[in-house]
Amino acid sequence: MGNNTNTFDAIVIGSGISGGWAAKELCEKGLKTLVLERGRNVVHNKDYPTTNMMPWEFEHRGQIPVDIADKNPVVSRCYAFREDAMHFFVKDTEHPYIQQKPFDWIRGYQVGGKSLLWARQTQRWSDFDFEGPARDGFAVDWPIRYKDIAPWYSYVEKFAGISGNKDGLDMLPDGEFLPPIELNDVEKYFQNVVAKNYNGRHVIYGRCAHLTEPQKTHYDQGRVQCQNRTLCQRGCPFGGYFSSNSSTIPWALKTGNMTLRPYSVVQEIIYDDKKNKAAGVRIIDAQTKVVTEYFANIIFVNAAALNTNLLLLNSKSNRFPNGFGNDNDVLGKYVAFHNYRAHINAKCNDFTNVTTEGRRPTTAYIPRFRNVYKQETDFLRGYAAGFGAYRGIQHDTSGFGTELKDALASKDLGSWYVGSHMMGETIPKESNYVSLDANKKDEWEMPLLNINVEYDDNDEKMVKDFQEQMTEMYTKAGFTDIHVDDSKHAPGLDIHEWVVCVWVKTLKHLY
Amino acid sequence: MGGVRMGKDPKTSILNEWNQMHACKNVFVTDGSCMTSTSTQNPSLTYMALTARAVDYAVSQMKKGEI
Question: Is the pTM of this model over 0.80?
Fold first, then answer.
């Protein structure tokens, strides 16, 4: 076995949202823990190069240069891949994979992973979710129920800092909330319209991992109140939102029990035939290509969903010839995702006497209302939705010279616009799977991942239902110029885009 | 999400109710690959809670000499 310097109590593979939590918890419990991260280190504040830059300080004014966009079509489809944050995204060209069916795989290879880039929206599951597969006859039954995880939701919410409103809804249990982020008048109006017209449909304050009123535990982490900059993807110098970098990783480091090793691509989990358990891991240094083995008694795998599949499939031994832990040929199968395809935008002609100023990191949220208590449609499960209203300043840019300057300087308010996007549950199926490519490897000797994931008829019906139901709800609210959209984009892409995409699309359609 | 799903039966799932491998007791998987189904919620809060829960279990098992 390994020498002392390569032996730890625990190893955590990955440092994103879940790896950071594993590191914090293991270190706090006194275990000497090695955290392996395949990318570079990103130290809170120190390694956020763009965080305080002004728009005009960006060489391309925030846009992705055409040559980079052309070479990297997948990552370029992600709403957050812009000049201010592109250093936190994996470029298509750097880490290829094989799309047996179109799949937009968005990755962040650095300490903190995608926790720097996530949309920070945080809702608890309820038993309507955990009981879903058993009730509706798909996948397998969850081995846990809400009561098993509820205290742990409370535990992580208090440390991470979650803002929200206690709404008392069966399908979306309340949490340990900091004050919610305010809705504007049009959003509150829609909330009332929906409450008046529908049983079981709710428009609520978005719940998100932002410190609206920091507590001692957050100050102890060195984090302060969210400033509503909405520049989160650059890394937040205030620690205003939860990321591994601002929270769990420095917390774990402070215990003195964590060893963080960036540039460590884990190739394989090593199985010990004599002890009938995992002995450790084999890594290749991403830069030097030197191969090293590390050993530990407990291994946490947190490489992000598809890379964890890749690692386990690649960890073959006499005991596990088909991949680590894969005695049943289930590994790599039943992959599912969220369906974000449909959007609906419209105009609100009322409320012309009010507007808003400033920014906020979330908007309103509509919890799932389809098939909650019983099956009521010809598709299984349902969708949640983001909802937001926005009033922008409209500039007439048709003139020249003084006329143009005056027009640009004017503060004439236009109409209110509303936008919503669906977040649909997809059904895990054996035919949606990932596998190792038999021939192609990357420069770290890892087989390329084949991705074979697609929408099905259930998803198509759900897109249509979202469009119909939201059109009806918008109509009841008196919104006009309703525009429904089905982006038909490939699965993947969901680092959980939020309402930003609605504005981009709204502006595209309406201006 | 998914691919390394949780479940009650070792014949049809990879992980048990503690995100622990059915077939190898000292390996835990608590990222998005463990998800048996996806529901509609943004999943990261659930990954955090499952992770803290799994570490608590793993360390208690280690102290009992079970791992």
Answer: yes
